[in-house]
Amino acid sequence: MRLLTILCCSSLVSTMLTVRVAAQDLPAPGVRAAGMGGAFTAVADDASAVYWNPAGLASGSFFSLVLDHDSRDEGAATLLALGTPPLGFAYYRTATGNRANGRNSLVAHHAGATVLQSLGDHFVVGGTAKFVHGVVDGGGASVSSNKFDVDVGVMLKGSLGRIGVSAKNLAEPSFDGVGEAVTLERRVRAGIALNVWELTMISADFDLTTAHAGTVGATVADDWREVAFGTETHPVEKLWLRGGVHWNAAGDTAAPVGTIGGSFAIYGSTVADAQVSFGSENGNRGWGVGLRFVF
Question: pTM, whole model, 2 decimals?
Answer without folding.
Answer: 0.86
